[in-house]
Specification:
Layout: H1 2-20, H2 25-34, H3 41-53, E1 57-64, E2 67-74, H4 76-96
Antiparallel strand pairs: 1-2
Helix pairs in contact: 1-4, 2-3
Pfam family, one: PadR
Protein name: PadR family transcriptional regulator
Length: about 100
């Protein structure tokens, strides 16, 4: 149950970082570790594939020092979903942390 909850947060993180600049899987794994998430490649790459299949990300293969690396960028639809998620996250955070 907890894993499913955090997977939602991870997806929002991915969309956010892909909105800033093209990102690749290992880079995202490291970024998420900085936030306390421990995501294996076996979890990250299926998430990226699903976000791409859903039309939220688009990928481009780039040769980096002789290795092919797949970079992901946010699509127009992904940008719209991210903006909606930001509103929902802000609303939830304000409610959760509201001083009573």
């Amino acid at each position: 149950m907890l894993r499913e909850l955090f997977l939602g947060f991870i997806r929002v993180h991915i969309l956010y970082h892909a909105s800033l600049a093209p990102v690749y899987g290992l880079e995202l794994i490291r970024e998420l570790e900085d936030h306390g998430y421990h995501v294996s490649p076996g979890t990250m790459y299926p998430i990226l594939s699903k976000l791409e299949a859903d039309g939220l990300l688009i990928s481009e293969k780039i040769n980096v020092e002789g290795k092919i690396r797949k970079y992901y960028s946010l699509t127009k639809e992904g940008c719209a979903i991210l903006e909606e998620a930001k509103v929902k996250v802000k609303e939830l955070a304000l409610e959760i942390f509201e001083e009573r």
